[in-house]
Amino acid sequence: MERTQLKFYSLLPESLRAVVARHYQPLDSATADYLRDELNDYRKKAAVESLKNVCIDIELVDRMIDTLKKLLTDFHRYSDVEKTVISAAARYFLDSEDVQQDFSDRFGFDDDLAVLNAALLAIDKEDMIVVRG
Fold it and tell me: Which of 48, 63, 87, 132 has the most CB atoms within 10 Å of its CB?
């Protein structure tokens, strides 16, 4: 296993590793474009859900989506392994069957946040870390 991938997995809570591994696939320009579109659609869904459930932290969702979109926009600047880490974080975020149901409660996005931040640390983008407001 490559150093960046090892770092990524070591930073993940153990309970998330198997699910994230399912999403660990190479990223190409078509995939990056598709994932950006999916993030836009997901943002709309999250906004609707936040109207039904005031516990959803839509500002946190926005910060995570903005960070993922920035990574996907700049994907050509990353190595193949870094692209795969970014892809895994974005795909995990979009997965409707991730470990913790996103719209279930105030902490529904905490697992997504953990995966995103592990990816950022693994690709040496500490300056982009997303925190709860």
Answer: 87
pLDDT tens for residues 84-117?
999 999 999 998 776 467 887 778 899 999 999 9
| All structural domains of the chain with their residue ranges | 3-126
Under 8 Å between Cβ of 64 and 109: yes
81, 89 contact by CB (below 8 A)? no
End-to-end CA distance of the chain: 35
- In the chain, DSSP finds a helix count (H) and a strand count (E) of 6, 0
Phi and psi torsions of 75, nearest 5°: -55, -30
Q: Are 14 and 125 in contact (CB under 8 A)?
A: no
Only one residue has tokens 């989506």, namely: 65
